[in-house]
């Protein structure tokens, strides 16, 4: 079975009763957060996991492909996926669940230390698992808007595995962060993206961690291999400064565009965001908020970017050429929406992306 299997489902439209789904591949782990003002707290996290949650809260069917162990932390992750209405592609395995120890400075910025296992089944096995997802209707249970992280670890959050998505094709696949840098899993992710591109658009966020890949040249090479496979790129100015300290942010964006993406966005923290397409360049000021912390802000930005592009009918391999023709007005809308989502996230402690209603109300205000 493959992404191009001849027994394709009938064409579907966004918001139809049988909708295409979005998928995220990458690490999920448990963040143990330390700060000067509170005792250590354990939360489910990882950049790809946060993007999956952000998409689910924006009312998309989401499949998450990330490993977890058959241990207490792994069961915490499984309950969190279930609470957000996200389908887990992989069952728990025998290796320990990955852990990140985050330390918050007085401004809310986080630094991390990791204990990681990033080993995946083969790209072919993962492709078969995507294609074999049970085509069943989700039960009409409380949706992600009613299941915040504060409830995600509840013993009553549901069984070990999320409910299968309703029948439909893969429309978009997001990858990034540790899952696209750390071997041996990163090479598998690359293979999955190669297979998925025939049916889906691809997004990528390097979210570069020098502590995990200290060789800058190797990290650049790896990042650029993913950029060449992707349609939508998001990075932070921190990523660009670490990967390409010898050139300006704009120069890096232009160089990445030459590798093939349709859209490159860069988040700039309190300075807002900027984006580049074939049509031109746009900037977005940051929204004025009282920052609780910045954990997950970039992931909320990524999720809102993809949700906005989907609302414009620009996701999916059949829409790839239309995505390449995105206008500067559309780019401005993407940046404004994504920046607002990031601001909402940053106004709360931890990675707490907005729901669709919250984001819509904030954009109207």
TrEMBL record:
Keywords carried by this UniProt record: ATP-binding, Kinase, Nucleotide-binding, Transferase
Entry-linked Pfam families: PfkB (PF00294)
Domain Carbohydrate kinase PfkB: 21-114, 195-354
PANTHER family: HEXOKINASE FAMILY MEMBER, PSEUDOURIDINE KINASE-RELATED
Organism in which the protein naturally occurs: Nesterenkonia aurantiaca
Region (Disordered): 139-170
Name of the protein in question: Fructokinase
GO MF annotations, alphabetized: ATP binding; kinase activity
Annotated Basic and acidic residues bias: 147-163
Keyword ATP-binding: yes
Family (UniProt): Belongs to the carbohydrate kinase PfkB family.
